[in-house]
Amino acid sequence: MTDSKRLVEIEEELNLDDAKFKITLYLDGDLLKRAKEEAAKEKMKYQPYINKLLREVLLGERSTLEERVSKLEDIIRRKLG
User: Fold this and answer.
1) Would you list the domain boundaries of the chain?
2) Kind and range of the H or E element at 72?
3) How many CB atoms lie within 10 A of CB 76?
C-alpha cells in the first residue's frame, strides 16, 4: 500500500471534517476590521465568525438557531451515550 493511500485511510478513520486546524492567513485590513465588527455584533470572537462565514459561502451551511441547537444536542448525546 502506498503512503498516500494509507494517509487517505487514516484521514477517513479520523473524520477530519470535524477537526480544527491552526493556519496562518493574510487578510486585507478592511476585511479583518469588518469581520471583527460583525463578530462583536453577534457576541462572537472574530476567528469563529470567519469560520462561520466560510462554511456559509463554501458549504452552503446557513442553519437556523434551532438547527444548530439540535446539532449540538445530537453531538452531546453521542459523547455521553
Assistant:
1) 3-80
2) helix 65-80
3) 10
